[in-house]
Specification:
Length: 403
């Protein structure tokens, strides 16, 4: 790492610390708990990780979690040693400030800062902002369509910058109309770190978006949400419908395209809430010509078809359906706070397609699996999901529910 880049990373981390510590906890009343966790994982796209995470939980005098600081050092089979600092600040009403700084020995970088307040101005509005820059060197592309072959797997580095904002107005306690805008700048597709696969730009030189894109998108969305919590819900229903218009500044012939989506999730809880059945359905449609492949609908990864790697199937339209049973197995005190643990057998299905007239039952993919969850209510979810497909198994870890 050059001296200049070390200075940049140090400055970014320093800025995060200043932002997150504007309102520090009263040290006489706060509790700080550390618990090292081995970081061992493997996934279809990202390779194998081996290392250590040392989360620190900062709780207030009432026992509620106020801050989570999670430095980690892992060695990845593709990109070498990676150092990451994760910072979370939680406030009443679901407000969350998040910062991430990560630097890998080979290619990969990630810097993120986001803030969300679902109850801004006494609950009349919701606001959210995020800024991110990253290089992901283990991305995969198999071509477009529902029948792409595993043998056509290629690798590339996605180097991009994203800026987003969102403003919502509540019509009542459960209904919200929101407007949002995003800027996404993707550089020309670059060589990846998974050298055992061909370079995407060589095998698919004519795929839309190989030369990069600069996209400005405007969205209007409708939200209906009766869930009892936004992060760790146990009951209720959430419906999101949206329409989005996008302009690609790097495509002078066909710069405009639109996207439409519907997302529905419903939770059926037992009387004791020790078992919660979650049903999730999603539909996306993209209309336009020469839409970059990374802007089209995709299936595979931690939130859909969990038996496949991220972006296994890509096309203009997508339909997906999942069922998951979250079963409570244990409650224990962890680092000074109460944590719930769950197992979650699931089954995912779905397909991508170029137009609705091409929908075929034989193109649906099905991936059963099981998940393991650790939950510190109301703010934190840690999960590991294993899904199985005809191409083998896939493991994903995350800090949220899949839906």
């Amino acid at each position: 790492m050059t001296t200049c880049m070390r200075s940049l990373v140090s400055s970014f981390v320093g800025a995060l610390c200043m932002i997150f510590c504007v309102a520090p906890l009263n040290q006489a009343q706060a509790e700080v708990k550390f618990f090292p966790i081995p970081a061992i994982s493997t996934s279809k796209n990202d390779g194998s990780d081996f290392g250590l995470i040392v989360p620190a939980l900062f709780t207030g005098p009432d026992g509620d979690l106020k801050y989570l600081v999670a430095p980690m050092v892992v060695h990845n089979s593709y990109v070498g040693t990676r150092g990451t600092i994760n910072l979370f600040r939680y406030e009443p009403g679901g407000k969350e400030l998040r910062g991430i700084a990560s630097w890998s020995e080979r290619i990969e970088r990630k810097f993120l800062l986001s803030y969300v307040d679902p109850g801004f101005s006494d609950g009349r509005y919701s606001i959210g902002f995020s800024a991110m820059h990253f290089k992901n060197a283990t991305m995969r592309f198999f071509g477009l369509g529902p029948t792409t072959a595993k043998a056509d797997q290629t690798n590339y580095t996605a180097s991009e910058t994203r800026l987003n904002w969102k403003f919502g107005v509540y019509a009542n306690e459960v209904t919200q109309i929101a407007v949002s805008q995003r800027l996404r700048h993707m550089q020309s597709i670059q060589q990846g770190a998974a050298d055992l696969f061909p370079f995407s730009g060589t095998l698919f030189p004519d795929a839309p978006g190989m030369g990069g894109a600069t996209i400005l998108g405007q969205r209007i969305s409708f939200h209906y949400d009766t869930r009892n919590n936004l992060v760790t819900p146990t009951d209720g229903m959430a419906v999101t419908a949206y329409a989005e218009l996008n302009y690609n500044f790097k495509n002078s012939e066909h710069p405009l395209y639109s996207r439409y989506g519907l997302d529905v999730k419903k939770m059926f809880a037992s009387e004791s809430k020790r078992a919660i059945l979650v049903v999730h359905g999603e539909l996306q449609a993209t209309i336009g010509t020469d839409v970059p492949f990374f802007e089209q609908s995709s299936l595979g990864g931690q939130n859909s078809l969990r038996g496949f790697g991220v972006d296994r199937y890509i096309d203009k339209q997508m339909i997906a359906f999942s069922v998951e049973e979250r079963i409570h197995i244990l409650r224990a005190r962890l680092a000074g706070v109460m944590a719930d643990f769950e197992i979650a057998p699931f089954i995912d299905t779905g397909q991508v397609f170029n137009s609705f007239k091409n929908v075929s039952f034989k193109d649906y993919r099905i991936t059963p699996g099981i998940g393991f969850r650790g939950i510190i209510r109301p703010n934190v979810v840690g999960r590991i999901d294993y899904g199985f497909s005809k191409e083998g198994g896939a493991i994903f870890a995350g800090l949220d529910f899949p839906y």
